[in-house]
Amino acid sequence: MNNTIKIISVYPNFLNKGGAQDVALQLAEKLNEEVMPVVLTETHFAEIVPDYWNRAKFVSFGWKAVRELANDNTVFLSHHRKSTSLLLLFSFLLRKKLHIVHVAHNTFNNLRFFSFFPKTVVAVSNGVKENLINYFHVPASHIIVVFNGIKDFRNDRNVKADKSEIHILLSGRICTVKQQVEIVRQTRGKLAAHIHIFFAGTGSDLEVLKKEIENESQYHYIGFVDIEENLNRYDYVCLFSQKEGLGLSLIEGCMFGKPLITNNLSAVLDVNEAGETGFVFPDFGSLIQGLNNLPMPYSEEYRKLSLNARLKYEKVFTEERMIKKYKEIIFA
To answer: Which residue intervals define the domain Glycosyl transferase family in the entry (predicted)?
Structure first.
């Protein structure tokens, strides 16, 4: 293969903004810099998030589109196991080998016997790789770990001035898996007065979360947040999910030099190193104790964690590094 290759990205759902959607479009743009990228999706154009409209040519995913686009110079970069499985079926029916690269963004424990993978699979974290091997029985030799990378937009705008409180940001889809509601229930009445947790995003548990924190002074719902403009308002970035693929909010935290607070999922430990870039708490009991003993933003310990977080971003999670890895895989 060579640089005449056209990369077709595939992801079924652009009804909402999310990490997988952002990475799918990011790769579509960066791997097709000279032309408008084509993205195959199951989402009707009118229902696609408006912020995404001008970033790609969205085409309905199906037999007709794949048959028209498939040739020796096309690589399908598929970001969903359902789409990948259908592409492999289309390849069989077309009686021609489609060039397919599957990008695994998360861990799963269902539909094992209905999920099929090509010989080239990218896992966004070591935790995702372990899941592919242990649950889906994908050969380790077929899997390459490529960490997500994001463009550096760190700035010094809107820096938090008050150093007497600790403000913790938990940004992401508000749902059972991300555990925002459970965090409130487990920590309510147990946090020191200077600890404040801010929840950003939306999702199926939003109304439950709002009700839980309605009369609380240490928990805050702030809606959608422009990370570039507002991350400096917070001291720490937290993610305490039941499962994760990698956690783009943690990478954004590292970019801004924000120490991280996580549990000990394999995937998040690719980003957060205990005592180096932040704190790792295996359960809610240790989380409560840890939150109440976080270093204050003006302390030397905080400064060290902040510097290490930024360094981790620069070494591991830049956009340039990610794109280079994908080009090595696709154009090999």
So the answer is: 158-283
In the chain, beta strands by DSSP E: 6-10, 38-41, 57-60, 74-78, 99-104, 121-123, 143-145, 166-171, 195-200, 219-221, 236-239, 260-262, 278-280
What does the pLDDT look like over 64-83, one tens digit per residue?
999 999 999 999 999 999 99
Q: Which residue has the tokens 């749902």?
A: 175
Dihedral of the CA atoms 184, 190, 194, 199 (nearest 10)?
-10
If phi over 0 gives left and psi between -120 and 50 gives alpha, with beta otherwise, what is residue 251?
alpha
At 127, give phi and psi (nearest 5°): -65, -40
Helix ranges (DSSP H) in 180-299: 180-187, 206-212, 227-230, 248-255, 266-269, 284-291
Which positions ≥6 away from 163 have C-beta within 8 Å? 296, 297, 298
pLDDT tens digit string along 181-202? 999 999 999 999 999 999 999 9
Nearest to 221 by CA among 205, 236, 245, 239: 205
Token pair in block for residue 141: 């030799």
- The full set of domains in the chain, from first to last, is 6-149+318-330 (3.40.50.2000), 166-316 (3.40.50.2000)
Q: Write down the mean pLDDT value for the chain.
A: 95
Position 303, amino acid? R
Q: How far from 254 is each of 123, 162, 233, CA to CA, in Å?
A: 20, 21, 14
Helices (H) and strands (E) in the chain, counts: 12, 13
The whole-number pLDDT of residue 1 equals 47
The number of CA neighbours under 13 Å toward the Cβ of 62 is 6
Rounded to an integer, what distance in angstroms lies between the CA atom of residue 194 and that of residue 211? 22
The whole-number average pLDDT for the span 27-40 is 94
What is the Cα Rg of the chain in Å? Answer: 21
Measure the CA–CA gap between 280 and 287, rounded to whole angstroms: 8
Q: Are 246 and 123 in contact (CB under 8 A)?
A: no
Please tell me the pTM assigned to this model: 0.91
